[in-house]
Design brief:
Length: 86
Amino acid sequence: MSLGIIGQAVGLFAVTNVDDILILALFFAQCAGFRHATRNIAAGQYLGFAAILTVAVAAAFGANSQRMRRRRNQCGSATVCSTTQR
């Protein structure tokens, strides 16, 4: 992984977190005074993040298995391919 890609990932993560903080502030402002509003907003935040994380991890494993399958089909075997082609 190159340093540029890691930098971009960190930057995008920071920007989306700033956006998330603003949206959460709006939710808390709209629900001020309602019973259990804080609990519901926090629960929704954690459930939403867990869902996004689950989808991202599944997509990463799927992309990796596709890449390995493609490499095996090109070379006939993953061990030969990993030593001769990169």
